[in-house]
Specification:
- This protein is an alpha+beta fold.
- Helices cover 34% and strands 23% of the residues.
- The chain is built from four helices and eight strands; from the N terminus they run ααββββββαββα.
- An eight-stranded antiparallel β-sheet has the order 2-1-3-4-5-6-7-8.
- Helix 2 packs parallel to helix 4.
- The protein is globular, with a radius of gyration of 28 Å.
């Protein structure tokens, strides 16, 4: 009996040793966090971002267009750059205007049919800053595209039910820059130009965009550049940000600006039809 127990103990110990050896061997051969495939994916995402930023250059047609129609819950105005804000112009077709701001607002949980409950408000906006004033002839559809000097996105959610305010701001200070030199630990040249600010907390009368930089012990809160965000095998955070939000957001606002321009152009052309119909009616008498 004692012999059997001893043999079992030795075999059990040997098994544990073998498992330990396998674990150690596995750790020794475990690959690191660097990943070329993650970076290759990021290159594709960066190409999409560059393409959309180039498309946003075409919305200069709105500078010389008289805006008569907008989608529901949408505001658009034109003005001149004042730091990181677009100062609304008294003359909305002034050739000196060099920035566009479009804002969409809604109520908390409206997609679930709870807008009437008054549980909070939310809004998002995008400002496009262009290099220089208008250079066209005055015809909106002949206004040439201009290089973007800055793009700012901001969203604010006021939740009365949870008594919280969430606020985020993304500032792209060089939309035309290529994202050269991106690595797994640090982003590239364009990532360095992308500043992200995020804060949440209890509401106050005046909620200001916080300016303090994030800390190593409190990442993701405060002011930081996308360059400092890792993009590794197990934490492809930059890729997730670009794929799941940034590209979709650029595409959303590009389509919204386009829709506004196209709709108002149709309104302008409709006036030709209205005048033609009126003149045609004069033939009846």
């Amino acid at each position: 009996m004692r012999l059997s127990i001893a043999i079992f103990a030795i075999a059990f110990s040997a098994g544990l040793f073998a498992q330990g050896a396998e674990v150690k061997e596995g750790k020794a051969h475990e690959p690191g966090q660097t990943s070329e495939s993650v970076l290759e994916t990021e290159k594709v995402l960066d190409e999409k971002i560059s393409f959309l930023n180039k498309e946003l250059e075409k919305h200069t047609v709105l500078f010389r267009q008289k805006i008569l129609a907008l989608p529901a819950k949408t505001i658009l105005y034109k003005g001149t750059a004042d730091g990181s804000t677009c100062k609304e112009a008294a003359n909305q077709t002034d050739p000196a205007n060099n920035c566009l701001k479009i804002e969409v607002f809604d109520f908390q949980d409206s997609e679930a049919g709870k807008a009437s409950l008054g549980q909070g408000s939310r809004a998002k906006s995008m400002i496009l800053f262009y290099d220089g004033p208008s250079t066209g002839t005055g015809d909106p559809m002949k206004e040439p595209p201009r290089k973007l000097s800055k793009v700012i996105f901001q969203t604010k959610n006021v939740d009365f039910k949870q008594n919280e305010i969430h606020l985020a701001k993304i500032e792209d200070n060089d939309p035309s820059a290529a994202n050269a030199g991106a690595g797994n630990d640090n982003g590239g040249a364009h990532d360095e130009k992308l500043t992200i600010i995020y804060t949440n907390g209890y509401p106050t009368l005046n909620v200001e965009i916080i300016t303090q930089e994030e800390t190593a012990s409190n990442k993701g809160i405060g002011n930081y550049t996308l360059k400092s965000v890792e993009n590794t095998k197990t934490n492809p955070i930059r890729n997730n940000f670009k794929r799941n939000f940034f590209i979709k957001n650029l595409d959303y606002f590009h389509k919204l600006y386009t829709n506004v321009a196209d709709t108002n152009e149709r309104f302008a052309l409709k006036r030709y039809k209205d005048s033609n119909d009126f003149m045609k009616s004069s033939l009846k008498y």
